[in-house]
Amino acid sequence: MSTATAPGEVARKAPLALLRKLEWRVRMAADSFLGGEYRSAFRGRGREFDQVVKYEYGDDVRDVDWNVSARLGELYRKKFIEERELTVVILMEDTPSLQFGSGQRTKREALLELAGLFALTAAGNRDRVGFWHATPAGHHVRQPVRGRVNIVRTAATLLGQPVPKLEDGPEASLEWKLFFHAFPKHSIVLWLGDFPPRPVGPGWAALRKRYEMIGVRVDDPWDIQLPSLGILPAVDPESGEVLAFDMGTKDSQQRHARWVAEREAAWQEWFPSPLQRLTAGTEGDLLDPLVTFFRRRMQGARK
Length: 303
Hints:
Blueprint: H1 9-12, H2 15-32, H3 34-42, E1 47-54, H4 66-72, E2 76-82, E3 87-93, H5 107-124, E4 128-135, E5 138-145, H6 148-159, H7 176-180, E6 188-193, H8 204-210, E7 212-219, H9 221-224, E8 231-235, E9 242-246, H10 250-270, E10 277-281, H11 287-302
Parallel strand pairs: 3-4, 3-6, 6-7, 7-10
Antiparallel strand pairs: 1-2, 4-5, 8-9
Helix pairs in contact: 2-5, 3-11, 5-6
Protein backbone atom coordinates (compact mmCIF):
# COMPACT_ATOMS: atom_id res chain seq x y z
CA MET A 1 0.00 0.00 0.00
CA SER A 2 1.24 3.49 -0.76
CA THR A 3 2.38 5.94 1.88
CA ALA A 4 -0.37 7.87 3.66
CA THR A 5 -0.90 11.52 2.94
CA ALA A 6 0.66 13.64 5.67
CA PRO A 7 -1.76 14.65 8.46
CA GLY A 8 -3.31 18.07 7.98
CA GLU A 9 -2.45 18.18 4.31
CA VAL A 10 -5.97 19.09 3.24
CA ALA A 11 -5.80 22.28 5.28
CA ARG A 12 -2.28 23.28 4.27
CA LYS A 13 -2.18 22.51 0.55
CA ALA A 14 -4.17 23.97 -2.27
CA PRO A 15 -6.99 21.61 -3.34
CA LEU A 16 -5.56 21.02 -6.83
CA ALA A 17 -2.14 20.14 -5.42
CA LEU A 18 -3.66 17.61 -3.05
CA LEU A 19 -5.82 16.14 -5.81
CA ARG A 20 -2.75 15.65 -8.01
CA LYS A 21 -1.11 13.64 -5.24
CA LEU A 22 -4.28 11.65 -4.60
CA GLU A 23 -4.71 11.00 -8.32
CA TRP A 24 -1.25 9.48 -8.54
CA ARG A 25 -2.14 7.12 -5.69
CA VAL A 26 -5.49 6.22 -7.25
CA ARG A 27 -3.88 5.48 -10.62
CA MET A 28 -1.25 3.26 -9.00
CA ALA A 29 -3.96 1.37 -7.11
CA ALA A 30 -6.25 1.16 -10.14
CA ASP A 31 -3.53 -0.57 -12.17
CA SER A 32 -3.52 -3.43 -9.65
CA PHE A 33 -6.91 -3.78 -7.98
CA LEU A 34 -8.87 -0.60 -7.21
CA GLY A 35 -10.50 0.02 -10.59
CA GLY A 36 -11.98 -3.45 -10.96
CA GLU A 37 -13.21 -3.59 -7.38
CA TYR A 38 -14.84 -0.17 -7.70
CA ARG A 39 -16.74 -1.33 -10.80
CA SER A 40 -17.81 -4.55 -9.11
CA ALA A 41 -18.83 -2.72 -5.95
CA PHE A 42 -21.17 -0.23 -7.60
CA ARG A 43 -22.22 -1.69 -10.93
CA GLY A 44 -25.08 -4.14 -10.51
CA ARG A 45 -26.18 -7.02 -12.68
CA GLY A 46 -28.43 -4.78 -14.80
CA ARG A 47 -26.41 -5.08 -18.00
CA GLU A 48 -27.11 -5.56 -21.69
CA PHE A 49 -26.08 -8.79 -23.46
CA ASP A 50 -23.38 -8.29 -26.11
CA GLN A 51 -22.07 -11.67 -27.35
CA VAL A 52 -20.84 -15.13 -26.34
CA VAL A 53 -17.08 -15.58 -25.84
CA LYS A 54 -14.82 -18.34 -24.58
CA TYR A 55 -14.63 -18.65 -20.81
CA GLU A 56 -11.25 -17.75 -19.34
CA TYR A 57 -9.87 -18.36 -15.88
CA GLY A 58 -11.10 -15.64 -13.52
CA ASP A 59 -14.34 -14.91 -15.40
CA ASP A 60 -17.57 -14.88 -13.41
CA VAL A 61 -19.01 -18.41 -13.38
CA ARG A 62 -22.52 -16.97 -13.24
CA ASP A 63 -22.06 -15.68 -16.80
CA VAL A 64 -21.41 -19.15 -18.28
CA ASP A 65 -23.83 -20.00 -21.10
CA TRP A 66 -24.40 -23.69 -20.40
CA ASN A 67 -26.42 -24.31 -23.57
CA VAL A 68 -23.70 -23.01 -25.88
CA SER A 69 -21.01 -24.74 -23.80
CA ALA A 70 -22.82 -28.10 -24.11
CA ARG A 71 -23.14 -27.76 -27.91
CA LEU A 72 -19.50 -26.76 -28.49
CA GLY A 73 -17.91 -29.00 -25.89
CA GLU A 74 -16.07 -26.24 -24.01
CA LEU A 75 -17.01 -23.41 -21.70
CA TYR A 76 -18.42 -20.20 -23.14
CA ARG A 77 -19.75 -17.22 -21.25
CA LYS A 78 -22.06 -14.34 -22.00
CA LYS A 79 -20.36 -10.99 -22.44
CA PHE A 80 -22.25 -7.91 -21.30
CA ILE A 81 -21.89 -4.17 -21.68
CA GLU A 82 -22.94 -1.65 -19.09
CA GLU A 83 -26.32 -0.14 -19.79
CA ARG A 84 -25.42 3.24 -18.30
CA GLU A 85 -22.72 5.19 -16.52
CA LEU A 86 -22.95 5.85 -12.82
CA THR A 87 -23.73 9.19 -11.22
CA VAL A 88 -21.82 9.68 -7.98
CA VAL A 89 -22.92 12.45 -5.61
CA ILE A 90 -20.75 13.48 -2.67
CA LEU A 91 -22.96 14.83 0.12
CA MET A 92 -20.68 16.59 2.60
CA GLU A 93 -22.41 17.37 5.91
CA ASP A 94 -19.86 19.92 7.08
CA THR A 95 -20.42 20.59 10.80
CA PRO A 96 -18.18 22.29 13.39
CA SER A 97 -17.74 18.97 15.22
CA LEU A 98 -15.68 17.74 12.25
CA GLN A 99 -13.01 20.28 13.16
CA PHE A 100 -11.98 18.11 16.11
CA GLY A 101 -8.73 16.20 15.96
CA SER A 102 -6.68 14.72 18.79
CA GLY A 103 -3.74 14.36 16.39
CA GLN A 104 -2.51 16.48 13.50
CA ARG A 105 -5.39 15.66 11.15
CA THR A 106 -8.98 16.63 11.88
CA LYS A 107 -12.00 14.57 10.95
CA ARG A 108 -12.92 17.19 8.36
CA GLU A 109 -9.55 16.91 6.65
CA ALA A 110 -9.81 13.12 6.54
CA LEU A 111 -13.34 13.25 5.10
CA LEU A 112 -12.30 15.71 2.40
CA GLU A 113 -9.43 13.44 1.42
CA LEU A 114 -11.88 10.53 1.17
CA ALA A 115 -14.12 12.71 -1.00
CA GLY A 116 -11.17 13.33 -3.31
CA LEU A 117 -10.36 9.62 -3.50
CA PHE A 118 -13.97 8.76 -4.34
CA ALA A 119 -14.16 11.46 -7.02
CA LEU A 120 -10.90 10.45 -8.70
CA THR A 121 -11.81 6.76 -8.65
CA ALA A 122 -15.14 7.57 -10.31
CA ALA A 123 -13.37 9.73 -12.89
CA GLY A 124 -11.06 6.85 -13.74
CA ASN A 125 -14.12 4.70 -14.44
CA ARG A 126 -15.78 7.33 -16.68
CA ASP A 127 -18.61 8.05 -14.27
CA ARG A 128 -20.18 11.42 -13.48
CA VAL A 129 -19.49 13.23 -10.20
CA GLY A 130 -21.28 16.07 -8.43
CA PHE A 131 -21.58 17.29 -4.86
CA TRP A 132 -23.86 18.88 -2.30
CA HIS A 133 -21.94 20.74 0.42
CA ALA A 134 -24.16 21.40 3.44
CA THR A 135 -23.12 23.72 6.29
CA PRO A 136 -25.02 25.45 9.13
CA ALA A 137 -25.12 28.56 6.89
CA GLY A 138 -26.65 26.84 3.84
CA HIS A 139 -25.55 24.64 0.97
CA HIS A 140 -23.53 24.73 -2.26
CA VAL A 141 -24.41 22.40 -5.12
CA ARG A 142 -22.43 21.31 -8.16
CA GLN A 143 -24.30 19.22 -10.72
CA PRO A 144 -22.66 15.96 -11.86
CA VAL A 145 -20.11 16.27 -14.66
CA ARG A 146 -18.17 13.73 -16.70
CA GLY A 147 -14.55 13.72 -17.81
CA ARG A 148 -11.40 13.80 -15.73
CA VAL A 149 -10.73 17.54 -16.06
CA ASN A 150 -14.26 18.53 -15.09
CA ILE A 151 -14.36 16.09 -12.18
CA VAL A 152 -11.02 17.32 -10.84
CA ARG A 153 -12.36 20.87 -10.95
CA THR A 154 -15.52 19.78 -9.16
CA ALA A 155 -13.54 17.98 -6.47
CA ALA A 156 -11.21 20.96 -6.07
CA THR A 157 -14.24 23.20 -5.55
CA LEU A 158 -15.51 20.91 -2.79
CA LEU A 159 -12.12 20.62 -1.09
CA GLY A 160 -11.73 24.39 -1.26
CA GLN A 161 -14.99 25.16 0.57
CA PRO A 162 -14.38 27.36 3.64
CA VAL A 163 -14.52 25.86 7.12
CA PRO A 164 -17.95 26.49 8.69
CA LYS A 165 -18.07 29.29 11.24
CA LEU A 166 -18.80 28.35 14.83
CA GLU A 167 -21.31 31.17 15.19
CA ASP A 168 -23.49 29.69 12.42
CA GLY A 169 -24.56 26.83 14.69
CA PRO A 170 -23.74 23.16 15.34
CA GLU A 171 -25.90 21.47 12.69
CA ALA A 172 -25.69 21.56 8.89
CA SER A 173 -28.70 22.51 6.83
CA LEU A 174 -29.81 19.27 5.16
CA GLU A 175 -32.77 20.23 3.00
CA TRP A 176 -33.97 16.77 2.01
CA LYS A 177 -36.92 18.02 -0.05
CA LEU A 178 -34.56 19.94 -2.34
CA PHE A 179 -31.99 17.16 -2.31
CA PHE A 180 -34.62 14.58 -3.36
CA HIS A 181 -35.04 16.19 -6.80
CA ALA A 182 -31.51 17.59 -7.22
CA PHE A 183 -29.88 14.58 -8.88
CA PRO A 184 -30.82 11.75 -11.27
CA LYS A 185 -32.65 8.75 -9.92
CA HIS A 186 -30.47 5.80 -8.85
CA SER A 187 -27.46 8.05 -8.20
CA ILE A 188 -24.85 6.76 -5.74
CA VAL A 189 -24.94 9.24 -2.83
CA LEU A 190 -21.89 9.18 -0.56
CA TRP A 191 -22.99 10.96 2.61
CA LEU A 192 -19.89 12.15 4.47
CA GLY A 193 -20.36 13.43 8.01
CA ASP A 194 -19.83 13.05 11.75
CA PHE A 195 -23.13 11.24 12.34
CA PRO A 196 -23.86 12.05 15.98
CA PRO A 197 -26.62 10.11 17.79
CA ARG A 198 -29.91 11.20 16.22
CA PRO A 199 -33.13 9.50 15.11
CA VAL A 200 -33.84 8.67 11.49
CA GLY A 201 -35.68 11.64 10.04
CA PRO A 202 -38.84 11.78 7.94
CA GLY A 203 -38.41 11.14 4.26
CA TRP A 204 -35.37 8.89 4.73
CA ALA A 205 -37.16 5.83 3.33
CA ALA A 206 -38.13 7.78 0.20
CA LEU A 207 -34.55 8.98 -0.27
CA ARG A 208 -33.24 5.43 -0.06
CA LYS A 209 -35.68 4.37 -2.76
CA ARG A 210 -34.63 7.15 -5.11
CA TYR A 211 -30.86 7.01 -4.46
CA GLU A 212 -28.38 4.44 -3.23
CA MET A 213 -27.41 6.07 0.06
CA ILE A 214 -24.02 5.20 1.56
CA GLY A 215 -22.78 6.63 4.86
CA VAL A 216 -19.12 7.60 5.21
CA ARG A 217 -17.85 8.41 8.71
CA VAL A 218 -14.39 9.20 10.06
CA ASP A 219 -13.55 8.50 13.70
CA ASP A 220 -10.86 10.17 15.74
CA PRO A 221 -9.14 7.83 18.25
CA TRP A 222 -10.83 9.77 21.05
CA ASP A 223 -14.21 9.02 19.50
CA ILE A 224 -13.58 5.34 20.12
CA GLN A 225 -11.94 5.46 23.53
CA LEU A 226 -11.40 8.45 25.80
CA PRO A 227 -7.87 8.44 27.22
CA SER A 228 -7.41 9.01 30.95
CA LEU A 229 -5.28 12.14 30.82
CA GLY A 230 -6.71 13.99 33.81
CA ILE A 231 -7.84 17.59 33.49
CA LEU A 232 -7.38 18.93 29.99
CA PRO A 233 -8.33 22.37 28.61
CA ALA A 234 -10.42 21.86 25.51
CA VAL A 235 -12.23 24.10 23.03
CA ASP A 236 -15.79 23.09 22.23
CA PRO A 237 -15.86 23.38 18.39
CA GLU A 238 -19.61 24.01 18.45
CA SER A 239 -19.73 26.76 21.10
CA GLY A 240 -16.14 28.05 20.99
CA GLU A 241 -16.01 27.85 24.80
CA VAL A 242 -12.81 26.77 26.57
CA LEU A 243 -13.61 24.03 29.06
CA ALA A 244 -11.66 22.27 31.78
CA PHE A 245 -12.48 18.65 31.00
CA ASP A 246 -11.50 15.97 33.51
CA MET A 247 -11.04 12.91 31.33
CA GLY A 248 -9.94 10.59 34.08
CA THR A 249 -13.09 10.43 36.19
CA LYS A 250 -15.35 7.40 36.17
CA ASP A 251 -18.31 9.61 35.28
CA SER A 252 -16.53 11.03 32.21
CA GLN A 253 -15.56 7.58 31.00
CA GLN A 254 -19.08 6.23 31.48
CA ARG A 255 -20.72 9.18 29.71
CA HIS A 256 -18.35 8.78 26.80
CA ALA A 257 -19.06 5.03 26.62
CA ARG A 258 -22.81 5.75 26.51
CA TRP A 259 -22.28 8.31 23.73
CA VAL A 260 -20.24 5.80 21.72
CA ALA A 261 -22.95 3.15 22.09
CA GLU A 262 -25.74 5.60 21.15
CA ARG A 263 -23.79 6.88 18.17
CA GLU A 264 -23.10 3.38 16.86
CA ALA A 265 -26.74 2.35 17.33
CA ALA A 266 -27.94 5.41 15.39
CA TRP A 267 -25.30 4.78 12.68
CA GLN A 268 -26.61 1.27 12.14
CA GLU A 269 -30.22 2.45 12.21
CA TRP A 270 -29.52 4.92 9.39
CA PHE A 271 -27.49 2.36 7.44
CA PRO A 272 -28.57 -1.17 8.51
CA SER A 273 -26.34 -3.08 6.09
CA PRO A 274 -22.52 -3.10 6.35
CA LEU A 275 -22.59 -2.63 2.57
CA GLN A 276 -24.15 0.80 3.13
CA ARG A 277 -21.65 2.27 5.58
CA LEU A 278 -17.93 2.99 5.57
CA THR A 279 -16.04 3.90 8.74
CA ALA A 280 -12.43 5.12 8.58
CA GLY A 281 -10.01 6.67 11.05
CA THR A 282 -8.12 9.94 11.04
CA GLU A 283 -4.81 8.08 11.32
CA GLY A 284 -3.17 6.07 8.56
CA ASP A 285 -3.77 5.64 4.85
CA LEU A 286 -7.39 6.31 3.89
CA LEU A 287 -7.03 4.21 0.77
CA ASP A 288 -7.00 1.06 2.93
CA PRO A 289 -10.56 1.34 4.33
CA LEU A 290 -11.76 2.46 0.89
CA VAL A 291 -10.45 -0.71 -0.76
CA THR A 292 -11.82 -2.84 2.10
CA PHE A 293 -15.24 -1.25 1.58
CA PHE A 294 -15.19 -1.91 -2.18
CA ARG A 295 -14.25 -5.54 -1.56
CA ARG A 296 -17.02 -5.97 1.00
CA ARG A 297 -19.59 -4.61 -1.44
CA MET A 298 -18.20 -6.73 -4.24
CA GLN A 299 -18.49 -9.89 -2.12
CA GLY A 300 -21.99 -8.90 -0.99
CA ALA A 301 -23.12 -8.37 -4.59
CA ARG A 302 -22.03 -11.90 -5.51
CA LYS A 303 -24.17 -13.54 -2.82
